[in-house]
Design brief:
The protein is mostly beta strands. Helix content is 13%, strand content 68%.
Length: 195
C-alpha cells in the first residue's frame, strides 16, 4: 500500500509541474460497424462533430533545436451520425491516452508531431438508447484500443493541429442482436492553449 501511495504521489507531482494543454476542435468522422451476418458497413457523420480535451506533458529531452515530451491526455468526442436504422444518432467516445510529442524549438513558430495510444471509454449516446428501446433489452458496449496521430504548430502559448484518431469498441451479444465491432475514424482540426 505504501508503494502505491508513493507511486501515485510521484505521478501527481510530475503532472503538477508539467506543461498543460487544453483544446477544442471539430470534424466529420465515420463509424465502421462489423458483424458476422451483416459484414462491414459504414455510418457517415452528417454534421460536424465536437471534441474537447486536455493533456499534461513533461519535457524529458531538451536541446537547442528540439524537445521531446511524454504525457497523459483525455478528450470527449461527440458525433452526429446518419444511420438507416436509427436516423440521426450520437456516438460519444472518451479516449484516455499516453502521448509522445516531438517538437522543434524556435523563437516564433514551433512545429510538432505527436503519437497517442490508450483506451477508449464509451458514453453510449442515442445510438445504443434507440436500440435498447426498440428491442426492450439492456445492451452493453465495451471500450477498446485508441490510437491517434497529431501534427501542428505552436505560436507563443497557442497551437493549431490536425489530428487523426481511431477509437475501437464493441457491442456485446444480446438476445436479439449479435456481437458487433465498431471502429470510429475521425480527422479533426483542433485549436488549443498551452501553459
Amino acid at each position: 500500500m505504501k508503494k502505491l501511495l508513493l507511486i501515485a504521489s510521484l505521478m501527481l507531482s510530475t503532472l503538477i509541474y508539467s506543461n498543460q494543454s487544453y483544446y477544442i476542435g471539430g470534424s466529420l468522422g465515420n463509424l465502421e460497424a462489423k458483424s458476422l451476418t451483416n459484414g462491414t458497413r459504414k455510418i457517415e457523420a452528417n454534421n460536424p462533430s465536437i471534441e474537447a480535451g486536455f493533456s499534461w506533458n513533461k519535457i524529458v529531452i531538451r536541446d537547442f533545436s528540439y524537445k521531446l515530451e511524454l504525457g497523459l491526455g483525455a478528450k470527449y468526442q461527440k458525433s452526429i451520425l446518419s444511420d438507416s436504422f436509427a436516423n440521426d444518432s450520437y456516438v460519444n467516445t472518451i479516449p484516455v491516452y499516453f502521448n509522445t510529442r516531438f517538437s522543434t524549438r524556435s523563437e516564433k513558430i514551433n512545429y510538432f508531431v505527436e503519437g497517442q495510444i490508450g483506451y477508449v471509454c464509451i458514453d453510449e449516446g442515442t445510438m445504443i438508447d434507440d436500440l435498447e428501446n426498440y428491442f426492450d433489452e439492456s445492451i452493453k458496449v465495451k471500450g477498446g484500443l485508441y490510437t491517434g496521430i497529431e501534427a501542428g504548430m505552436e505560436i507563443s502559448d497557442f497551437y493549431m493541429a490536425l489530428n487523426y484518431s481511431i477509437s475501437n469498441f464493441e457491442r456485446e451479444k444480446t438476445t436479439n442482436l449479435e456481437k458487433e465491432s465498431y471502429k470510429y475514424m475521425k480527422p479533426s482540426l483542433i485549436f488549443g492553449i498551452r501553459f
